[in-house]
Design goal:
The chain is α+β, with helices and mostly antiparallel strands. The protein contains 3 helices and 5 strands, in the order ββββαβαα. The radius of gyration is 14 Å and the shape is globular.
Length: 117
């Protein structure tokens, strides 16, 4: 059974990261970018949870918050990150599928800007 962590999640839009903090320390992050032209979509590129925080539900909390953030902004999410995509498949009621054309454009933008990864 997975232990659920009490985490605080903060968006650092300037640096393209959504960061989870546990006891004031960074525990995990989603690296992302906003598609051009903004606000085309929020694109999850990579999710990382520090080893000492694994198994606590932090990655799921981050992805859920990422989708919530996008919904509040009125934009879709393109989950290029395998972890975010897996979570989205498991939670279709919370994670609307992005149109294929949007996914392809996000992939193109990421290829043209590898520094985003």
């Amino acid at each position: 059974m997975t232990e659920k962590a009490a985490v605080e999640i903060r968006d650092d839009r300037e640096h393209g990261s959504l960061v989870a903090y546990e006891d004031g320390e960074p525990a995990g992050t989603i690296a992302y970018f906003v598609m051009d032209p903004a606000p085309g979509a929020l694109v999850a590129v990579h999710t990382v949870v520090r080893p000492e925080h694994e198994g606590k539900g932090i990655a799921g909390a981050l992805v859920r918050e990422f989708y919530t953030m996008a919904a509040h902004e009125g934009v879709p999410v393109v989950p290029l990150c395998p972890d975010a995509a897996k979570w989205a498949r498991r939670h279709p009621d919370e994670a609307p599928e992005a149109p294929e054309a949007l996914v392809q454009e996000a992939q193109r933008q990421l290829r043209n800007h590898p520094e985003l990864f």
